[in-house]
Amino acid sequence: MTNTAARLGRPVTVAVLAVGVALGGATSAGAASSASASAGASASASAAGRLGPYGYGGVTLGMSAKQAQKTHRVVKKFGGGGGCSGWDLKAHPTGEDGVGLFISKKRGVAVIFAPKGVRTPEGIGIGSTRRQLEKAYPHLRTAASGYPVTTVPGNRRADYVFLLSRGGKVYQLALSLKTQDCVN
What we know:
Blueprint: H1 4-8, H2 31-39, H3 42-46, E1 55-56, E2 59-60, H4 65-70, E3 74-78, E4 84-89, E5 101-104, E6 108-113, H5 130-136, E7 141-142, E8 148-152, E9 155-164, E10 170-177
Antiparallel strand pairs: 1-2, 3-4, 4-5, 5-6, 6-10, 7-8, 8-9, 9-10
């Protein structure tokens, strides 16, 4: 996942959070409601290396930065300009120009990007085709940004957001709170 933020919109620098995913309304649930929903889901967050329905790698949507740090599975990459900070999962560093997840001061973990080789419980990951997306997610919709989006099965407060290549294959996948406030 090189240059994640640049692929998704505005480039990220170490000093400034300026990211764009163009989720077109795909965002996250409030920290309080999401935190309670994700508190009991930490086991499923990392089960079988799957992204979703509540998180990935022991990090769950809605966790505060402090809670995420206590997992010892994340490392901060840049500060919270604009209210969000960029982080990586220690097991999946993204390099200088990318991030693995965003944490909102208001909502906690707001967006988690799928590392290479990671799939949703429905089997979708980087390299999946549009046809596979439509089969796995019959309620797939197109956001205002033009990206395919679907409500996460088993977590109505989150969306999967897919970025497709011109050839119709997934090259980026994110698990996002519907009310997230980190990327647009």
